[in-house]
Design a protein that fits this description.
322 residues, 8 helices, alpha+beta, extended
């Protein structure tokens, strides 16, 4: 079952397999908000965790595909954290930060050394594989050299050119490749910063997890009963039941963007704006939303939930003067 972790009222998914299941099996996209380990100072491509809209999280909970949890601050923790807390409690109240930091480093030293040893072993293994790959590449060139030379000989014989002139460059190239093969182990350059590293695909829990009842409003999950949330959820659920993909519509001034298929393959067709049923909307707001939808080549969808719980849709397109 998918675990949705709450952090200050925001639902996150920290497991890569859960994030993949959410997209492939449940047609929900969410938004990746984590930095990449290799490129932390850019925001074009992001990684875990996957941040969900409250409505997306509720849909997963309602279809019993996920469970809502939160980390308990006073829960059970791993032994290292317990030991660190014991050291922290023994320190003076006025704080000897240097001594405290030294004790923490001493506790974490075995883990740091184990991780560094693992990186060193991985580097050696990757360097060995890279050398073998380079050897195969050079050996394949040595094996193909005679074939090319014979072809060159035939061609130059037909042109009445001396064979000796064609043999010399080929033999020199062959010799240089053989010399490179002999000195490959000592001269092969494989920078350590180019090695592949293991990227975590799940979040290590900070403590004991507590299941949160998503039907009851609380400080950690305040959405149940809120009119805006209920309207947004009814709209999202109705569109989802119709087979659409839905994502957040903030960047286009709406509540949701509605796609006919996976957003990686399709552009959004609609900008869904949720509004209370039979509530008056100022004309200038309609004009602004209609023009915005037309400028980005999407249809504006005004969505409301009537007293019977049914969702009604009104499409709006700016056509200009005709």
């Amino acid at each position: 079952m998918i675990q949705i972790h709450l952090k200050e009222g925001t639902p996150f998914v920290w497991n890569a397999e859960d994030a993949q299941e959410i997209r492939e099996q449940h047609r929900l996209t969410g938004c990746l908000v984590g930095a990449l380990a290799r490129q932390p100072q850019q925001n074009m491509r992001l990684g875990l965790p996957l941040q969900l809209l409250p409505e997306e999280a509720r849909l997963l909970l309602e279809i019993k595909a996920a469970v809502l949890v939160r980390s308990m601050p006073g829960g059970e923790q791993d032994d290292g954290n317990k030991e660190m807390e014991s050291y922290s409690s023994d320190s003076d109240e006025d704080g000897c930060e240097k001594e405290k930091r030294g004790k923490e480093e001493k506790i974490l030293q075995p883990e740091v050394e184990a991780y560094q040893n693992e990186l060193d072993e991985s580097y050696k293994e990757q360097r060995r594989l890279a050398i073998e790959n380079k050897k195969e590449f050079l050996q394949s060139h040595v094996m193909h050299m005679p074939t090319g030379k014979k072809k060159s000989k035939r061609r130059k014989q037909s042109e009445n050119i001396s064979i000796c002139t064609s043999e010399q460059p080929s033999s020199e190239a062959n010799t240089s490749i053989l010399q490179e093969l002999e000195n490959l182990e000592s001269r092969f350059n494989f920078p350590q910063d180019t090695m592949m590293v293991q990227i975590p695909t799940a979040r290590r829990g900070a403590g004991k997890l507590e299941t949160v009842d998503w039907n009851i409003p609380s400080d950690h999950w305040p959405y149940p009963g809120q009119q805006n949330h209920e309207t947004r959820y009814r709209v999202l659920r109705d569109l989802w039941d119709k087979g659409y993909y839905i994502s957040a519509g903030n960047k286009f001034g709406g509540d949701f963007l509605v796609y006919p298929g996976d957003p990686l393959r399709f552009h959004a067709h609609y900008i869904a704006v949720c509004c209370p049923y039979k509530k008056r909307i100022p004309v200038y707001s309609l004009i602004a939303m209609g023009r915005l939808g037309t400028n980005v080549k999407k249809t504006l969808l005004l969505c409301s939930v009537d007293s019977n719980g049914d969702v009604t849709y009104t499409s709006l397109q700016w056509t200009g003067f005709q």
